[in-house]
Design brief:
Blueprint: E1 2-6, H1 18-28, H2 32-40, H3 43-55, E2 63-66, H4 72-81, E3 106-110, E4 122-128, H5 137-147, E5 148-159, H6 165-185, H7 189-200, H8 205-214, E6 219-225, E7 230-236
Parallel strand pairs: 1-2, 1-3, 2-4, 4-5
Antiparallel strand pairs: 5-7, 6-7
């Protein structure tokens, strides 16, 4: 299984470049999971399990996790597919050294819009909270389509850009009055302030479905979860 971390100016999102993204993640990483548990009451773990389930990953599959962050999806996928690969040092998670099933993970760092893999390599691909921060999202989807085998699935978890004014208003309020203030306790105000704008600059579910089809996928369906605050795109080659 390949777990692929983002590294490129093409993935700069509302920040200016790869160095800024890496610096931002490095600052957040020590408490990233703790913050997610607080903000979502632990539900992010359920949503990630749904993402893996929607991907259709099964024993023996070769899977790709793009923009793997702290590795939540990678670790879930490694348990799903069994021992098929290698693991390299991943400093954000000490547990990766102690659980035997994580030895099937090989960690990479590179560009999500220029994946260094041959065509039709993977049975499954996932990306969690990463596509929103890629500037050329169509190219990233085209790359994931290219490296997936015919009939394979891509599962994309991220914040949902809702078409409901009520949902968007509540989402904005939660970021301004819950997420950012809590982040400020840890000195991470600026690290989380970008979040609201990044969601506004993202795509709606219908727009994601359309973009996936334009990128070459034969089917695409976007599911709203968590009352419409999160969404999961499932696309099939």
């Amino acid at each position: 299984m390949a777990a692929f971390q983002r590294r490129s100016e093409s993935e700069a999102g509302t920040l200016e470049g790869a160095a800024e993204w890496q610096e931002l993640f490095n600052r957040i990483a020590p408490i990233y999971d703790k913050m997610n548990d607080v903000f979502t009451l632990g539900f992010h773990r359920l949503w990630k399990r749904w993402t893996v389930s929607w991907s259709g990953a099964k024993e023996g599959d070769k899977v790709l996790d793009v923009c793997c962050g702290s590795g939540d999806l990678s670790f879930l996928l490694s348990q799903k597919v069994g021992v098929n690969g290698k693991v390299a040092a991943f400093r954000q998670r000490e547990r990766s050294k102690s659980n035997p099933c994580y030895k099937n993970i090989e960690w990479f760092e590179g560009d999500a819009v220029n994946l260094p893999f041959p065509d039709s390599t993977f049975d499954v691909a996932t990306i969690g909270y990463g596509l929103r921060n890629v500037i050329d999202r169509k190219k990233a989807l085209e790359q994931m389509h290219r490296v997936l085998k015919p009939g394979a699935k891509l599962s994309v978890l991220d914040f949902n850009k809702s078409t409901s004014q009520l949902t968007s208003t509540i989402q904005d309020w939660m970021i301004d009055h819950l997420v950012v203030p809590v982040a400020s306790w840890y000195g991470l105000t600026s690290e989380y302030q970008y979040l609201k704008n990044s969601i506004k600059e993202y795509l709606t579910g219908a727009e994601l479905e359309k973009l996936a089809l334009e990128a070459g996928f034969s089917e695409a369906k976007h599911y709203e979860v968590a009352g419409g605050f999160m969404g999961n795109l499932v696309a099939k080659c």
